[in-house]
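Typical record is below.
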Amino acid sequence: MAKIQRSADVNKRAKQIVDLATGEIQEPVSTKNPAAVELGRLGGLKGGKARAEALSPERRKEIAKKAVESRWKKKEEGQ
């Protein structure tokens, strides 16, 4: 669904809300095909599980170790 750009400024945001409520501006209508959106979502839900099944246990372990190291590195840099 297409969205209206929302302002971070409180006053501008309030005006946008009033304009929407009074009908001065309209929410954009989605131009996406609902069937295509559902198929994409379905594929996304299957993807992680299918990938995990396709990987060897050793490769999954390598990926997990890399993720942990990355998280710890970010945590150390943040301190």
Remarks:
- Residues 57-78 form the longest helix (22 residues).
- Residues 57 and 63 are 10 Å apart (CA to CA).
